[in-house]
Amino acid sequence: MPRVVHVGLGAFHRAHQAIYTEDAGWEVCAVAPRSAEVVRALRERGHRYTLLVRDGEHATARTVSSITATLHAPTERDRVVAVLADPGTTVVTLTVTEKAYRPGSAVVALLTEGLAARARRDAGPLAVVSCDNLPGNGRRLRELFEEDAWTRANVTFPSTVVDRIVPAATRADRELTGDPAVVVAEPYTHWVLEDGFPAARPAWERGGALFTGDVTPHERAKIRILNGTHSTLAYTGALIGHEHIATALADPALEALAHRLTAEDVLPSLTPPDGLDLEVYTAAILARMRNTALRHRCAQVAIDGSLKVPIRLLGTVRDRLAAGAHPRWACLAVAAWLRHVSGGADDRGRPLEVSDPLAGRLRSMPPEELLTVPEVFGEDLPYEPAFTGQVLADLRDLARHGAAAVIRRETTT
Question: What is the per-residue pLDDT for 235?
Fold first, then answer.
C-alpha cells in the first residue's frame, strides 16, 4: 500500500492530515522529532487512536488507523532515514511548528540526511509538504534545500493551508474514550494544497481537500483572520484572566475587539480567494471559536508569540500602513502580546503561562526598546511612528490600567 511519511507526531496531524490520508486509503509512517511519549502510546494500541469531535454538547468518536508505524527520530534515526529514502515513499508531510524552519534545525538536518540517502539510492521523485502555519510554507521549506542539485531536480515543496482547531486533550477526554492517545477537534476541517506533486500522492480530495495553482489568497485569509484573531484573543484573554478562547470571546469587550480587528484592519488588507465571501468566512470563524466544548486554552494558543505575531498580525500592519491607514486594533493586539510576554502577570497580578523563545530577552528590555527586536519587527516597523507610537501608548495603558479597562474603553469610543 502507498505510504506517506509524516514528521511531527502531534495532535494536529492526527486530527487533520492523518484523517484525509485514511479517507484516501494510504498509510502513514509517523516520525516524532523529539518526544517519545506519543510513540509509546500509539505502539501500545497497535497505532490506532481515537478522534473525538466536539461541538457544543455533542461528541462523536472515530477510530483512526491510517498511522501504521511510528518512529522516534532521536533514538531511531537510521530507520527514519531509511524510510525517507524508500522508493515506496512518495510524499513527506510536516507539522513541526514555525521554529523548525531554520537552517541547521534538527528537522532540517533530518530531512537533509534523508534526501541525501534518497539521492544515493536513486529512489525517485518526492513531494515534501509543509502543513505549518507559515506564509509561503512550501517556498520557505524549499529555500532550505536549494543548494542541493539532486533535490532541485527531484523534489517539490508544495505550499498548503491547513485549518482545524485542535485543543489539547484533557483527562476527561482520555477517561471518556479510554484512549491515552485521543485527539480532540472541532467538526470543521479544511486543507488547500498547491498542485505540484511529481509522483503518486493520496487522493486527499476524497476528504474535501482543495488543489489549486496558488494558495496565497487562501493562506492570507486564513492566517490573518483565524490565526490573527486567535492570537489576539489568547493574549488579551489571558491578561484579563480568561482561561479559554471561547470564554474570552464571550467577553463583550473582547468580542468587540475581534470584530473591529477583522472588519477594520484585516479584511481591507485581503484579496478574497475565488468563491469566498470574506465577511461570511469571518463570521464562521468566530462561530467556531465560540464552541465551548473545545476548551481551547489561551495559554496553548499563546505559545511562541515571537514567532507567530510577525506572521499572524504584522502582515496586516504593514499592508494597512502602506495603504495610508491606521491599524488601530492590530497595534493593540501587538501591545497585548508584548505585555503578556514581558510582564508575565495578568490584570490581577497572577502569573501567566509564558512559553516564548524570546521571553527572557524581552523581559530584560525597557518598554521603549521592545519594538526594536529585528527578529520580530524587521528593519522597517521600528521606523514607522504610526505603529511604534500606538503600540507603546497601548503598552503603557495596559500596564497602568489593565487589559480589561483599556479594551473596554477603546472598543466603546
Answer: 98
Closest of 273, 166, 156, 157 to residue 210, by C-alpha: 273
155 and 276 within one domain? no
Write out the residue range of the structural domain in which residue 404 sits: 217-411
The tally of domains found in the chain comes to 2
Query: For position 264, what pLDDT does the model report?
Result: 98
Tell me, what DSSP letter sits at residue 30? E
Q: Which of 186, 212, 238 is the last residue of a domain?
A: 212
Q: How far apart are CA 48 and CA 181, in angstroms?
A: 9
- Clarify whether residues 146 and 254 are in a common domain: no
3-class SS of residue 346: coil
Write down the pLDDT at residue 2: 58
- How many residues does the structure list for the chain? 413
**Which residue, of 212, 234, 250, is where some domain finishes?**
212
CB neighbour list of residue 174: distance below 8 Å, 6 or more residues apart: 180, 182
| Exposure string over 160-180, b if 16+ CB within 10 A, otherwise e | bbbbbbbbebeeebbeebebb
Other beta carbons less than 10 A from residue 276's beta carbon: 12
Query: CB-side exposure of 149: number of CA atoms within 13 Å?
Result: 1
Q: Which residues contact 277 (CB under 8 A, 6 or more apart)?
A: none
> DSSP string covering 173-219, please?
HHHHHT-TT-EEE-S--EEEEES--SS----GGGGT-EEES--HHHH
Mark whether 241 and 360 lie in a shared domain: yes
* 155-205 pLDDT per residue, tens: 999 999 999 999 999 999 999 999 999 999 999 999 999 999 999 999 999
CATH number of the structural domain spanning residue 343? 1.10.1040.10
What residues contact residue 192 under an 8 Å CB cut-off, 6+ apart?
160, 161, 209, 210, 211, 212, 215, 218, 219
Q: pLDDT for 236-246, tens place per residue?
A: 999 999 999 99
328-343 and 228-240 are packed helices; what angle lies between their axes, rounded to 10 degrees? 50
CATH code for the domain in which residue 130 is found:
3.40.50.720
